[in-house]
């Protein structure tokens, strides 16, 4: 009887195992085999693009397979501008949904009235200041301020929408970059966050407040406003190995390069940034109305004009920056609309680092951390988590470990894009790739299809990321912005990103990893000629 029971049990277990093998394990193995053949991210012919040599992209959320991306592209090996070819590609000519009032950050009438009031206040302030300066025998260079409703910076503000800071073919952006290089500076002051530090600098803090970073707000003759970050480090210098990420220098060339990379990745979440040689005597010292700022200027033994940060723990001449004798290169970042007219909120990054010498955050020790984040608002629905992953890819490429917060415009709510602000701690080490920056991608194993397709495209020889970045940066007056090792590091890091995605796909399958988002081509992809006309 017992022998018969054992035989029955063995037969039952064999049947269950056979069914499990046939109906569950074998289909998974076949699926993985097909996926590994169809989804190679590293080879030269791995890109899946609709309308290109018979290949087709699966239909995405707001278009069907009957309306694929259209238009042939120039052979990427035929010479000429790789950057023009990149921006002529169908992936860079995706149609944006029709923008109604709710999709635009600001309305023209609202913005014009806001700035007319600001100009009136400025004129009253200048009149009172000039009278007080005359009584105190203070010399101030006065410039007439004119409000131009057609100024490029105003058009930039009006172009901000739910999807990006500017559209792909917006001719305003090249014009704004040129304007920031030459606009007359009429006033210089500390930024608002530095003003908030006055009298409250704490030397015991491990992470110093932003007053440590020597940044100024410059107002231009046409009432434009830009943030000036002076040169602190030579192009060839790497961040010392013993430096923690939270005490690293802020690099002006990193701000410039980050804007160009953001545009090449088609995120368009970094405000326009241009390099400029600033005469810190004529364009800062002689036009500032802030006595605290005046007080930190001095002349060095080499007869160069210098200034330093106002925070007490760095109010020393050895932390100063100096012109040569007056000219100092730096980055100018276009200001976003004021918070009173376009409110933004700052939100802690779920993958924030420990800003202590030996602390660690949960994501650094828990490989399943993303499972917790996926259950939390606002990461449990919509695009917020996918946008965090986009941001981590961007930060990994530039080597930025200092993304402790991100900002969004409150008008667009949870579905709005993330602003990629304050990128000056990027491009510090070309010889090191900090893979922990990719934790959101590697732990969550999610990515937008549009992001992935562009990354794949930029890995192709005809659109190589380092080549298009080099070409894009050549338009800046402070070129070369990045040294060759930094440019080549972009290609190396891109391959590492693709390998992380490939591992996720092999483990979970393509459908689990690659998230559909809208991809619909314009009627005709923009040509290189069209792009040159828009410039």
Question: Outline of this structure?
Answer:
38% of the residues lie in helices and 10% in strands. The chain has 535 residues and is α+β, with helices and mostly antiparallel strands. It has one domain (101-515).
Architecture overview:
A hairpin with a 4-residue loop joins strand 2 and strand 3 (225-230). This protein has one domain. It contains 18 helices and twelve strands. Helix content is 38%, strand content 10%. The strands form four sheets. A five-stranded antiparallel sheet has the order 1-2-3-8-4. The protein has helices at 2-38, 82-88, 108-136, 152-159, 172-182, 192-195, 252-264, 281-285, 291-295, 362-365, 369-373, 384-398, 439-444, 449-458, 465-473, 484-508, 510-513, 528-534; strands at residues 185-190, 216-220, 225-230, 273-279, 297-299, 305-307, 321-322, 327-334, 344-348, 405-409, 447-448, 514-515. The chain has 535 residues and is α+β, with helices and mostly antiparallel strands.
Mean pLDDT: 81
Distance between the termini: 91 Å
SS strand fraction: 5-15%
Structure summary, number of beta strands: 12
**Cα radius of gyration in angstroms:** 27 Å
Structural class: alpha+beta
Instruction: List unreliable stretches of 5+ residues.
Output: 29-75, 206-212, 521-525
Q: What's the helix count?
A: 18
Domain tally: 1
Enumerate the strands of the largest sheet in spatial order, edge to edge or round the barrel.
Answer: 1-2-3-8-4
Keywords: ATP-binding, Disulfide bond, Glycoprotein, Golgi apparatus, Manganese, Metal-binding, Nucleotide-binding
Active site: 402
Domain FAM20 C-terminal: 297-513
Binding site for ATP: 229, 333-336, 407, 422
């Amino acid at each position: 009887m017992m022998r018969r029971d054992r035989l029955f049990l063995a037969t039952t277990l064999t049947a269950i195992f056979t069914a499990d093998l046939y109906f569950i394990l074998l289909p998974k193995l076949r699926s993985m085999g097909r996926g590994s053949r169809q989804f190679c991210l590293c080879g030269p012919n791995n890109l899946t693009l609709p309308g290109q040599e018979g290949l087709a992209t699966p239909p995405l959320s707001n278009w069907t397979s009957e309306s694929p991306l259209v238009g042939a592209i120039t052979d990427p090996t035929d010479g000429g501008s790789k950057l023009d070819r990149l921006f002529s590609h169908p992936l860079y000519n995706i149609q944006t949904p029709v923008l109604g009032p709710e999709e635009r950050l600001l309305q023209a009438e609202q913005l014009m009235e806001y700035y007319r009031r600001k100009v009136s206040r400025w004129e009253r302030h200048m009149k009172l200041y000039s009278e007080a300066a005359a009584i105190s025998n203070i010399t101030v260079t006065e410039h007439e301020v004119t409000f131009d409703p057609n100024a490029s910076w105003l058009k930039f503000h009006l172009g901000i929408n739910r999807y990006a800071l500017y559209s792909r073919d917006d001719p305003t952006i090249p014009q704004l970059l040129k304007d920031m290089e030459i606009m007359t500076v009429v006033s210089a002051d500390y930024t608002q966050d530095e003003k908030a530090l006055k009298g409250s600098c704490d030397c015991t803090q491990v992470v110093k407040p932003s007053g440590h970073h020597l940044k100024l707000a410059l107002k231009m003759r046409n009432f434009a406003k830009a943030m000036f970050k002076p040169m602190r480090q030579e192009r060839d210098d790497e961040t010392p190995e013993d430096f923690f990420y939270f005490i690293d220098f802020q690099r002006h060339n990193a701000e410039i390069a980050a804007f160009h990379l953001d545009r090449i990745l088609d995120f368009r979440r970094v405000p326009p940034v241009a390099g400029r040689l600033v005469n810190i005597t004529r364009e800062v010292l002689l036009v500032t109305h802030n006595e605290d700022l005046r007080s930190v200027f001095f002349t060095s033994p080499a007869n160069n004009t210098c200034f330093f940060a106002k925070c007490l723990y760095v109010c020393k001449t050895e932390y100063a920056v100096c012109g040569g004798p007056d000219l100092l290169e730096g980055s100018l970042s276009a200001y976003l609309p004021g918070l009173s007219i376009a409110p933004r909120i700052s939100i802690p990054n779920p993958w924030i680092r420990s800003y202590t010498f030996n602390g660690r955050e949960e994501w650094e020790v828990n490989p399943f951390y993303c499972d917790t984040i996926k259950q939390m608002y606002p990461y449990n629905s919509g695009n917020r988590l996918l946008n965090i992953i986009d941001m981590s890819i961007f930060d990994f490429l530039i080597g930025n470990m200092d993304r402790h917060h991100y900002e969004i415009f409150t008008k667009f709510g949870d579905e709005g894009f993330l602003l990629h602000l304050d990128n000056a701690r990027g491009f510090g080490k070309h010889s090191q790739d900090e893979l922990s920056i990719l934790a959101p991608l590697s732990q969550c194993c999610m990515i937008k299809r549009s992001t992935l397709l562009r990354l794949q495209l930029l890995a192709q020889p005809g659109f190589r990321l380092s080549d298009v970045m080099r070409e894009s940066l050549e338009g800046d007056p402070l070129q070369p912005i990045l040294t060759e090792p930094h440019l080549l590091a972009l290609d190396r890091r891109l391959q590492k990103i693709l390998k992380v995605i490939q591992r996720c796909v092999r483990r979970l399958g393509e459908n689990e990893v690659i998230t559909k988002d809208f991809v619909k081509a314009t009627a005709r992809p923009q040509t290189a000629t069209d792009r040159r006309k828009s410039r």
